[in-house]
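FIELD: query
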Amino acid sequence: MNTPVTVTTPVTSFRKRRSLAIGAAVVSMLTVTVHDLPASAVTLKEEAFTAASQKLTTPVDSFSPVATREEFVISQYTPVQWPIAPSSDISSGFGWRVAPCSWGCSSDHQGVDFDPGYGTAIHAIADGVVVQSASDGGLGQHVVIEHEVDGRMVQSVYGHMIYGSQTVAVGTVVKRGQILGSVGSTGASTGPHLHFEIRPGGGESVEPLGWLAKFVTESWSG
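FIELD: result
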């Protein structure tokens, strides 16, 4: 058997080298062309593809904002103080007791009796209006003031003052701490003292020390 023999002539070798050179040149041109493209062209293509292949899903209520705010409780505030020094002695408390006298002293005591001393100044516990100023009855010389404390009407009563010491009359607008008169022993009394009452709504009296403990806001200044 005869084996084919490939004869390489100078012409054939030249053509092969020429073909390889042309092929390398084409590849080189293509490579230069791709690398010479502006970066933005590639970026735009990638972005367009990304945007087209993504799906944005959002909750419906994310586009329904609801404005909220914290709740604040606003309370009315009324400055209140003691009618006399809170360190004053107390001779009689609120409620049932043995009547200390037989000429009008009550066994159902509707207030508290402070003993700060004869002539001691008596002060209005809060801003208000005088609704009674008289010198008759068991309270002797006394004053009743109507206030609005924390949004509610309340009356304060100051009894047994020295005759003629009162500084206010019915209709007088008073300020907290204003002097109303002086401690005396007028009316149904066995000695100098301030009979003090608290009447919520102008009705029945309540235990005044507990009321003062709850509502007094100002330090005693005399």
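FIELD: remark
The chain has two domains: 10-63, 89-215.
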